[in-house]
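Consider this:
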Amino acid sequence: MNHEISLKKNVGAQRCLLCPLECGADRAVRRGACGVGNFGAELGDRDPYLSALVARAARHYFEEPPISGKNGSGAIFFSGCNMACIFCQNDDISHFQKGCIVGVEELSDIMLRLESLGSHNINLVTPSPHVPLIAAAIEKARLGGLTVPIVYNTNSYEKPEALKMLEGLIDVYLPDLKYKSAAAAKKYSGRADYFEIASKAVLEMQRQRGVLTTDENGIAKRGVIIRHLVLPGSVDEARGVLDFIHDNMPIETHISLMSQYTPMGEGLPKPLDRRLLKKEYDRAVDHALALGFTNLYIQELSSAQSVFTPEFNGFFE
């Protein structure tokens, strides 16, 4: 399958239209709204879409059980993000450029290395600014012997057209559905159109891979797991997201309701300046159960610790 870089306009230069922001940046000469630019210039690569900064590549043990398993998920954390979440736990890499420059060959080698260490899968974290690079690297890694599933771990602020470039390459989609209302999305992430965009993206992921299937050890093989982080004071957002899933996707859809919100940094507005209350999380879980979802992952409130956020030191395991 030939995955071409089709979401660019050539008007004297290559203007980036990969994500819903459609910032139109000529990534050969300047960074886009996501913070991603032509890092490959230092590698002698003239195509600005075929390079990235990787802040960390190592086994990660704190994802959902079908992703992490016993051996860990081979997580590759990319720098850059097209959201502006004021509570981001990965702020070091989402809002700042940090990491090692990789091209297609280097990224392919990292994937193969992570598999050789026993990782259950290759987990691409914040991948959306790097779709062309990822598509090319997966194809190269598969030719080089990669056999484990590829996980696409995304905020879901994605174009369906970009996701279609990955069809047949991604095995497991791990999307967030952060908000239902435009007001919350605007206030907390600067993207009033978040749900309008993300809901369509999630439905495209569902079209491609369907309900999650696992192997004999409970490790994800193919499908979708939808994540929703329950925020303080935002149970209605959780209910709205769950209602959407119920009305538009199979009741067997795997849903991860997360309680791990941890206030990061100073100056967060109320109620984001505090941790999630048990009664808030319980109300979200009760709503999911009342809707009849049968594949629900829940967390203890003790999971809200900064220790679970990895250190982005460019470490390559």
Observations:
- The CA atoms of residues 183 and 192 lie 6 Å apart.
- The radius of gyration is 19 Å.
- The mean pLDDT is 90.
